[in-house]
Structure formats: structure tokens, C-alpha cells
Amino acid sequence: MRNLLKPIPFFFFFLMQYGFTQTMLNNGGFITAQPGSYTYVNGSVQNDNTGILAVNGNGTATSAELYVTQDITNNATINADGYIKLLRHWYDNNLFNSTTGTVFFLGPNEFLGGTSATQFFNLTLAGTGIKTQQINKIVKGVLDLTSIHLNTDIYGCFVTNTALNSVIRTTGFVSSANGGFLSRNTLSNGLYLFPVGSTASTSQNIPGSGTFRYRPVEITPTNATANTYTVRLANLDATNETPVGYNRNSFEPLLCASNPDFYHQINRTNGTSAINLTVNYDPIADGNWSDMARWNISQPAIWQDIPVVTVAPGAPFFKSTTSNWNDFTNIPYILSNTNPTQPVINNIVTTGCTPLDIVLSSNSIAGISYTWFANGQNIGNGANLSTIFSNPGCYDITLSASNGSCASSVTSTSLICVENTPNAAFTASASVISNSNQSISFYNSSVDATDYFWDFGNGNTSNQENPSIIYSNPQGNYLVSLIATSPNGCSDEVTMVINYNEEAIFYVPNSFTPDEDEFNQSWGPVFTAGFDPYNFELLIFNRWGEVIWESHDAAARWDGTYGIRALQCPDGVYTWKISYKPKDTDDKTIITGSLNLIR
Q: CATH for 505-597?
């Protein structure tokens, strides 16, 4: 917790105590907030004349903190190695010094204005809304966008810290009007992220006037020397850029289309290092692009292809990359497509039987989509296509290659020829076996076949057209299969299950003598096979039809008593009812009978 008991000027205390929204005016004084102190201004701060406002610290949690609910206007000098937290606008008109401090913008829709290009050390954007520059601003430490939209307008946001992580974010991004940009100094051959995006569709970058896009650029210098690169996302058709447009329909013959939704302005303003340049895009929202182009590489007023561009799939972005790029004579860059080369069908002539499984194959090129046609009918997409030809005949195969804007194709005549396949079919004299040594005859009804192979599922086979088989000592079910083959070697297979229903085997005694000797003291049925023990019920009735004993366990036995007090039943005849489910069917079987209880 911050130390709130340190002495602070009386008017600070007055503003905190009574909550008035006023201006703290320093008209030439020297005001210092020492480390560990917390100063709250419920209003604005105005630093005038020769005033010096010092918020001391070392960039740690013990640094002094100045919290201002309205604007800060600096017309003199602010020294800030501690924390300044601001809920409204920043107007810096003179001198701001910071070597370890952080300025936090925590309010809604704040301006970074004034007449001075403030040299922040760390700058953190939070709160809500959009933070808008009204002049160039410099960050010497870390620019933390968090989830905020920073609009540089026509100005530059200069990050001079050469560390790779000098710009960080969660979902925040930087947008700029035509003339504005995000600038980063580099001194490494690592990857520098330029998190550019926009909600505008105008050169003036009017927020909210267009579709939101976050399309970051990655720059990786090829060596670790000092360079400065700038990036802007222009979230509009390059043709409509003002005051000077870049006609998207003006391109060299190698190209066939360019991205109508956005382009980037990329520049090197200091240094000589070539870069590996990556433009990120969303193929679902932006379409598929196989290349990049730049305005005026060697011809004026024309988009020209950047040679050797690779596209790497990913989520959420695909990455379009050119390596060792070192031409920064013009700043517009755009995603593009070149006319695809004619595709190649790798398959040779294939003949087979219906249904014929075929894998059609071509050489895949990144950014190119492929469509296959058989006798003019679309049969699927992809450089490699697995498909089935179900109808007999010969097929001309056409492959079309497209990059989303242009296409070329090739056709192979009668590449696939398909012959009829036999239709295997048979019936059986019985589909259920219920006893040993049962004979079953099979009747072949196959079409377009001359050779047959039977497998009866019990280890026996046959090549007869209509065979018979005896199932000796059957156990379980049997899968019978027939393979019917044509003279050309085409075949078809059909199967049938022969079920075995095991007969229930049981014995029900007709009497018992619960007279407390060692013999015949209980009664119950004896089931040995062919029933489901989990679907069993036994009821015993007296002569008045009352249930005096029941069980759902076939192994349970009646001892001749009834009720919870186990009273002995008298001698006599009792009726029983058994309900059970045979092992291999869902039907219930009910049997009844009587028994003699003899004491």
C-alpha cells in the first residue's frame, strides 16, 4: 500500500478531501513527489512559467505516483522517473524528461497533444476508447498497447528502444492516417512486430468508418546494425488513397489481381539493412493471395511483382514473406496474385472396376487452389483428390488451378476407364441354427459373375455356385460371405449372419420336504444354459393366488416359509410361475407349474 501520510502541499489535500474538480497550477514553483508518495489531483494539472514538476522514482513499485483525473498541460518542465496516471488529455508544450518512468493513459478517448514531441520512457495505454496523437510522440522504453487502439493520425509514433519486446500488446493495435506511421528502431536480426490495424476505410483514418482489420507486419533485419523502419496499415482500396492513389488495376502482365481491401506503407528511414518482410493476412476474410507486389519497382505508376514470395499457412493468419528485401524507394506494398502456371496431372491411364477408387494427383503450389472435373462435371478440390467412379465408362479429367483471381487448366483424355462390377447376392434356407448338425443350403443370385468363393464362417469354404453346409456342434453366430468375380477380374462381396440360438436347458422339481433333516430342504428350478440370468423372475402362489415368495436370481431357493417373520407354510400344493429371456433373443418365455410341499 502506498504511503499516504507523507507531507504534501495543502491544496493537494484540499482537492482530495472535498472532491472539487479544479486545476492544480504551478506557476514557476518546484514541486517534488518523492518515492513512496501518492498524489491525487481531482482535476487538471497545469505547469507554467519556469515551473518544475518532479515525480521521482526508479521505475519500481516504490516510485512516486501522480494520479490526475483531468488534463495535464505542461508549459514548463516535467521530470518523471515515477508514475503518472492520467484520465484525460496530455498537452506537452515544452520539456518532458523521463529515464525510468511510465505514463499511463487510463481514461476514455484521450489525446496525446501539445506542441512538443514528448519523449516518454514507458508509455502504457489502458482505460477505454481510442488514444489519438495530435503531434509526433516518442517512446524510449516500452510501448504497451494492452487492448487499446492508438491512432497516430498523420503523425508518427517513434519507438526508439531497439529491444524486440519494446512494443507489447494483448489485443491493442496502432492505426494511422495517410502520412502517419509506427516507427521502430532496430539493432538486432530478430523479429520486430509492427501491430498495425484500423477501423477506418478512409485515408484520413476516421475511426469506426470501415471494417476492423488487424493485419500486423513482421520485419526481421538481416543483420544487427542500426536501422529504423516505419509501417502503416491503409485499410482501404489502394486506388482510393488520397491525395495520391495507387491504381490496383495498373499492374504488370505477370500479375492478375491485387487485394482490394487494404495495403501497407512500409519504409526504411535510417540504415541500410535488408529485411525479411512478412505481411499477415486472414484468408477467410481477405481471400487467398500467393504473392506480394510493390508500387513502382522499376516502372512508374504500376504494381510490380516482388520475386520469391512464400506463403505459410497458420492461424489466425497466413504469412506472406519475402526474404532479403532491400528496395525502399517506394512505400506501398500489397498482397497480390500472379497468373498461375498450367497445372500438371501426375496420373497415368487407369482402368478398373466399379466402384473404382482413384487418387488424382498434381504438384501443390502454396496459395493455389485446385479443382478437378470428370467429363466436365466438378468432382472435388485439392491438389490431391481421392474420389470414387461408380458408373462404367471412360472419363476425360480436367484440372483447373486458381489463385482466387486467375486460373489455368489442363485436360487428360480418357484418363480413367471403368468397367461394370458383379452384384453378389444370395439367400439361405435358414438364418437361425437351433440344434446340432443342422444343414443349410445357399442359393446364389449374383449377376455378371462366373466364379464364386464361399466362406461359411466355420472354417469351411466352397467354389460351388449353390453349396450346402452342415453346422456341427454350433457355437455362437457365423458370418457367411460370398465373393462373386467377373471374367475381367472385377469382384463384389456380400455377407449374411447365421445366428445360433441356444435352447434353454432347465429342470423344475415337483416337490420338496423342508422337515429339517439333511435332505431336500429347499426348492427351486435348475437352469444350466440358454437363458439370460439378468432377466429372470420366479413367483410362488398359495391356493388363494397370493404371492408368498419371489426371486430374480435363478440360483435362489425357497425354504417353505413366507413373510418377514419366516412363518412356515403348511403342507400342500403351490403354484409357481417362471419368466425368463432366452440368451439370444429379446422375447420373454413364461412357464408355470405346481409343486408339493411335504413336511
A: 2.60.40
